[in-house]
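Margin note: ligand = zinc ion.
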Amino acid sequence: MNPIKKSNRTRILEYIFRNAPVSRATIAEQTDITPATVTTTIAELINEQIIVNLGEVEQSDNTPGRKRVLIDLNPNYAYAIGIEFNEKYVSFCITNLKGKVISESVFSTTYHEISNITEFIIENVEILMQKNEDIKDKLVGIGIGVPGKINNNNKELFADSDVWKCFFPEKIKQRFQLPVVMDNNVKCMAMGIYLFKPEQSPENFSFFHIGIGMYCSNVINGELFKGENYISGEIGHTIVKVDGKSCECGKNGCLNTYASERWLIKMAKILIENNASVILDKLVKDNEEVSIEHIITAYNLGDEVIREYILEALKYLSMTISNLSIIINPTKIFLHGRLFEDKMIFRQFKEYIERDSNFIGDSYFSNIERVPYRTINGAVGASARVIDAYFINE
Ligand SMILES: [Zn+2]
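Resulting structure:
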């Protein structure tokens, strides 16, 4: 893969998104673009009202007599629509250029209830646009975070479930006459952190999402790592137990089969069917109801079998993070998942990480950061993804 040659304007915008407020001199120093070109480009961006002048500010190093004029992004110059759909919910949002959500809607629904996801998206984007009539002309595009893999070449969606066969991004593009970008939902979340939370995200990091399935997106030198094909990031199909449980992918002992919500729920249902759980049994009316929340509650109430399952899941997740740290050695690892919202579970997880990451460094756990689990995160990330593709990289 050849890196795409970026224009000076794109490089300057990228730098501003990540580092503003900043001076022209710093941009020139850090991007290696000549001060003259920086000055001309910034003048253009100010003229277009994309950038605003903040005025003179004292240097942070307090050098006497040296003042620099700082510039910042005008966050409300443009907006983007972000969407995420998966087996649990469909979420929509509009954000400004700095990721501020100005409108959102989340539909907790099972995919069985949506007969046509394309129509469902079109209807709800229309509603969102009607509600935000005043910014309609400032929309950069529509980003869609999808529950699966995207073929790098033809933008085709490969998902575990056949119900998404009725997903046609072309129809959405035609209906709204806006650029549409679709990408794996976890890649979108990583882009959301990178673009909208620059103070929190380094240039190299991994974003590990554990939900119904799991995925790990890597940002390397400020770019989403793509790999040769769509398999990159499918961390749930790395083997953690030789000759372990058989996975839907055809292999045995994949991480998914021990730690994904889909498999934890599957195992919990079997427990209930066999009357093998004392506590979980009492939390649900019938086994169809079991959710990851019930499993977490049962763990905290001391359900022995559930406890074993969770501990096993945490051990394999910790082992995977240790391997990831050696292979990629990201500056930070973000964790996003319902499981890590629970204090007791996270404390236990920390113990395993400290044990498994000895080799990498005593304080490796401090590089691991929990991202609060929110159903809107994927949609916000999708908004970042389209801003990156159609606003920064025109
Ligand atoms: Zn597998």
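The mean pLDDT is 91.
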